[in-house]
Amino acid sequence: MNTGFETYLRNNSHLTDDEIAQIAGASTTRSLSRNESLLQEGQVCRHKTYVISGLLRIYGLVADGSEHILQFAPEAHWTLDAESYDQQTPSRFNIAAIERSEVIVWSKPVFDRLLADIPALRALSQQLIARSNHGSRQRLFTALSATPEEKYEEFVRTHADLQNRLPLHMIAAYLGISLKTLTRIRHAQIRR
Amino acid sequence: MNTGFETYLRNNSHLTDDEIAQIAGASTTRSLSRNESLLQEGQVCRHKTYVISGLLRIYGLVADGSEHILQFAPEAHWTLDAESYDQQTPSRFNIAAIERSEVIVWSKPVFDRLLADIPALRALSQQLIARSNHGSRQRLFTALSATPEEKYEEFVRTHADLQNRLPLHMIAAYLGISLKTLTRIRHAQIRR
DNA sequence: GGCAAACGTGGTCATTTGACCATAATTCCC
DNA sequence: GGGAATTATGGTCAAATGACCACGTTTGCC
Prior knowledge:
- The structure is a homodimer.
- By secondary structure, chain A is an alpha+beta fold.
- In chain A, 48% of the residues lie in helices and 22% in strands.
- Chain A has a domain at 5-119: Sandwich (Jelly Rolls).
- Chain A has a four-stranded antiparallel sheet with strand order 1-8-3-6.
């Protein structure tokens, strides 16, 4: 079986075919229907996850019930609440499917074992953490410094592929602006 | 010589005294006067840095010349533009001293050598990256979801020690709000 | 295929926020 | 110690934003 995951590893790591087979062999597949939850606030994230197809979101809720999205995870993304997973502590965030999705997962003991056995997997993990770090930081800077319009423009620039798979209210929740403001921005841009 | 750095390593890692001596021995000390720059946008971050004393800030500039602060780095913090350092690419951010500060630095080749030789230092590095990750993410969530007042309250809660070492306009630049708004919030709180 | 839910847009209004300006107090540095 | 720069606060005003509401359309799903 080739889930696309093997292809991903072949193209994005120095793993040998044997190692790839070993990693894939230790994984379990899980299907998520639209809106199905993968992790809820307060639960401990017990699995490392890779998205084969579909689209997930990682988000937090605030007092008034509205949600704010930290990250989208489309196919070929590793998604996890890193803090909850690493430390096995209750998560502050939620993960749920936006579209029908397929993910593969490893329980933490299993994945730890793989990490211990396979140096190239450690290297890949570190690379992913570093990338995530840079992503968060860049996003933080944008959140601090950009106007709503600039935020939207950056989103379109960096997530062109996701733009038509997401309802506008989720884009707004991702940008930290209201749906109304987003609508206004788009309206203004059409006029131009 | 004991700079406090050795003590830090003794308390926060599994490094042996020999290893600690090796790491400290490979470092260079640098003093920064108030407002002195350590790294400017566009430069490549060529050194790993540890703050012995004082206080630095990592910030970015926007078109109108205003600055937005990503992070404060007081004594006992490792500070660096991780992306620029890791990939040796031009930095998008600036680092400068807020107070007169002392830092110790290692050039990247030297520190890479230490990392290769000392497993416990790799472990520490990974821990620091993970922590930084979680910090950025938490901060991003706050930036997206909190009101200015909530942001300030969280800042006071999490940075009580820095509060009276920082001018208000820098706190505002950190929170992503205007100085005016910050003044208003503080005024309202006094009245309560 | 059809019904219910989700979605996108629009209008209005109150509130918040930031821009600009001035001023007093404080702090820094030579 | 003293002069200059930085800092904190305040006032006013315009603009941006969000809250609330309604309505028509689209979409998902049984």
